[in-house]
Amino acid sequence: MDFKLTEEHLAVQEAARDFAQTELLPGVIERDEHQKFPEEQVKKMGELGFLGMMVDPKYGGGGMDTVSYVLAMEEISKIDASASVVMSVNNSLVCWGLEKYGSEEQKMKYLPDLTSGRKIGAFCLSEPEAGSDATMQRTTAEDMGDHYLINGTKNWITNGSSASVYLVIAQTNPELRHKGINAIIVERGTPGFEIGPKENKLGIRGSDTHSLMFNDVKVPKENRIGEDGFGFKFAMSTLNGGRIGIASQALGIASGAYELALKYSKERKAFGVPISQHQAIQFKLADMATNIDAARLLCLQAAADKDAHRDYSKSGAMAKLFASKVAMDTTVEAVQIHGGYGFVKEYHVERLMRDAKITQIYEGTSEIQKIVISREILK
Ligand code: CAA
Ligand code: FAD
């Protein structure tokens, strides 16, 4: 087994690192403080090919593998997890879902704009009363012959106000339970579709999270993705890959905090020596480095499974479960290594600590990842 990255992988990694340093780092603290969406930066991500990395070039994508995507997600998340969640949703939920399951017309119509960043996508599964228990969809998509009539509310939607293309999961045949659910493309501006106020969040504050309201929203039948009743399966199998994206985001948050803590520990002196010479600090750094390497291996394993067309629901869930814990643990220790300076904004680690928490919640909480993993190992 060769653990070496290819030249192409290294080039993607370097391009993402450069982009994060030059375009995302300036202003990241201000965007977090004022909950400002990284609009210009996301536009540039589109121009550089970071928004449709794995999509076939014939739809405007980069035609890259999932390993490249993990590497880019890690680099961008080291600096700005608000920007990287936009990237993750657009790449691995919206573009991937459309490319894998959409009709040729849908792909031609939506993917070129989504891969280039001219438009951004959103993935709308969660509801006020259906988060982990995702089959309990209350949003309805009534079959009206040539169109669907959508009614209901979606909650916590990333890119809620910045997106133009929304993949909406809704119930058409309640008596069929999850087999009656559909996935439907809804365009921004469709009459009856309203965007609720922005959530005021603990972390990833630059990302815009909104509830969405659907009031007799009329959508043509050709906007349904896949066969009638395929919507829940669509959501679950899309999330399998989405979880690799969020695992890589968590990995990036952890490695960003570790790099800052390592540097700071060599600069800061206490008791006449750099604090990196105190064994208590050395052991923290050793734990961080070990956990981060293990998290990276799990992310790359899941990506390699996906690229090789092996099942990746378990490896993706394991990567997300583990990397999100590593993100939490590492950022807390990075703040500790910074002492009082870690508690103020200009040292970045407090933001990374706040950003880390969401990786244990969205795209399936850690408890849900354990359900996914245990079902796989017990079956
Ligand atoms: N991959 C493919 N199919 C899957 C699947 C998976 N990982 N998990 C379930 N399914 C399929 C099952 O095979 C089953 O299909 P059949 O009936 O045809 O066999 C169907 O889905 C129903 O499965 P279950 O009976 O297992 O359903 P359940 O009610 O017990 O719950 C669950 C399954 C795993 C808990 C699921 O509800 C779940 O994943 N919940 C978490 C929801 C989630 O991750 N939300 C994320 C929202 S998006 C987001 O958060 C984006 C962001 O932040 C940026
Ligand atoms: P609940 O499901 O109510 O869970 C509450 C607690 O109970 C959790 O700890 C959970 O793990 C635990 N729990 C629930 N069921 C079980 C069980 N069976 N066994 C053990 N423990 C259990 N959703 C989207 O569709 N699209 C998005 O773009 C999106 N972006 C988001 C962005 C942010 C910032 C946030 C906060 C959320 C986002 N979400 C999005 C929603 C997210 O996926 C849900 O919050 C998540 O799935 C959990 O659902 P819930 O909040 O309803 O919690």
Automatic annotation (TrEMBL):
<protein>
    <submittedName>
        <fullName>Acyl-CoA dehydrogenase</fullName>
    </submittedName>
</protein>
<keyword id="KW-0560">Oxidoreductase</keyword>
<dbReference type="InterPro" id="IPR037069">
    <property type="entry name" value="AcylCoA_DH/ox_N_sf"/>
</dbReference>
<dbReference type="InterPro" id="IPR046373">
    <property type="entry name" value="Acyl-CoA_Oxase/DH_mid-dom_sf"/>
</dbReference>
<feature type="domain" description="Acyl-CoA dehydrogenase/oxidase C-terminal">
    <location>
        <begin position="231"/>
        <end position="377"/>
    </location>
</feature>
<dbReference type="Pfam" id="PF02770">
    <property type="entry name" value="Acyl-CoA_dh_M"/>
</dbReference>
<comment type="similarity">
    <text>Belongs to the acyl-CoA dehydrogenase family.</text>
</comment>
<dbReference type="InterPro" id="IPR036250">
    <property type="entry name" value="AcylCo_DH-like_C"/>
</dbReference>
<dbReference type="InterPro" id="IPR013786">
    <property type="entry name" value="AcylCoA_DH/ox_N"/>
</dbReference>
<dbReference type="InterPro" id="IPR009100">
    <property type="entry name" value="AcylCoA_DH/oxidase_NM_dom_sf"/>
</dbReference>
<feature type="domain" description="Acyl-CoA oxidase/dehydrogenase middle">
    <location>
        <begin position="122"/>
        <end position="217"/>
    </location>
</feature>
<dbReference type="Pfam" id="PF02771">
    <property type="entry name" value="Acyl-CoA_dh_N"/>
</dbReference>
<keyword id="KW-0274">FAD</keyword>
<feature type="domain" description="Acyl-CoA dehydrogenase/oxidase N-terminal">
    <location>
        <begin position="6"/>
        <end position="117"/>
    </location>
</feature>
<keyword id="KW-0285">Flavoprotein</keyword>
<dbReference type="InterPro" id="IPR009075">
    <property type="entry name" value="AcylCo_DH/oxidase_C"/>
</dbReference>
<dbReference type="Pfam" id="PF00441">
    <property type="entry name" value="Acyl-CoA_dh_1"/>
</dbReference>
<dbReference type="InterPro" id="IPR006089">
    <property type="entry name" value="Acyl-CoA_DH_CS"/>
</dbReference>
<dbReference type="InterPro" id="IPR006091">
    <property type="entry name" value="Acyl-CoA_Oxase/DH_mid-dom"/>
</dbReference>
